[in-house]
Specification:
This protein has about 300 residues and is of the alpha/beta class. It contains eight helices and eight strands.
Length: about 300
Amino acid sequence: MSSPDTVCHQEFDESRFLSSEYVPARPEKAAFHIIPVPLEQSVSYGGGTARGPAAILAASQQLEAWDGISAPGEAGLYTAPAVDCDAPIGTVLERIEAATAHALHCKALPVILGGEHTVTLGALRALAAEAARTGEPFGVVQFDAHADLRSQYEGSIYSHASVMHRAVADLGLPLAQFAMRDFCREEVDVRRRYNVLHYDADILFRQGLPERPLPEDFPRRLYITFDVDGLDASLMPATGTPSPGGLFWHQALLLIERCLKGRSMAGMDVVELAPLPGLHHADFTAAKLTHALMGFAQRAGLPRKA
């Protein structure tokens, strides 16, 4: 049964996630804080990630509130103002960290919409600071075509190609990677050095999806970062580096479900959408993926409001 806030395809604001179905909640009442971050500073191939968050928000108006199992929006959706990305990368990361920290202060789950993959670092910093205060650790689960473990790329340690290096080397976070099929020798060495769990695309193809992807000693709270190029290029062409051999829809959802078995979600992001004019299905796929992740989070157990 829908909540009293459900408005079901009435007038809506395309700058707010799923406002076609729900009256936006106040920040302190919402279970989800959707945080758009239109960052595009270090893209190295196809551009367009600055338009990604707005495209996801617009496409979300075409979603059904019911995701097939539950209706995560009934827990309350608040779409924050877009993070101002017209600044040096250090300043932008501080702004993302502050927006994420605000969500955590409101006992809400941060949902970051990118923007290039560098945006993840700002969210991870806020969550790491919270974990240091509460003593509740979390691990990172990454879906991606690329390992993003370079120490630096094109002169920047804050490149989208280095974001996971920052997570493991600077923040000391456990990391599990899925669907990678493009990485360099340095990244293989970094995986060994930091004990990064990985299920690359060829292994998933040859051996099938693992029943228990995460070991028992992996943290019980997960931050899921989903670069849309983790999906196969035929399903997701609207990204800077679309790559063949990726995941298809139900494979991705099944892996997420299995990763979350007995665990909960600390936060999430969907990044690297670079919309293509007239290609509506890619924007809708990214919006539906965001909504699906929110549904998984809801069913795994959301933070309790005071």
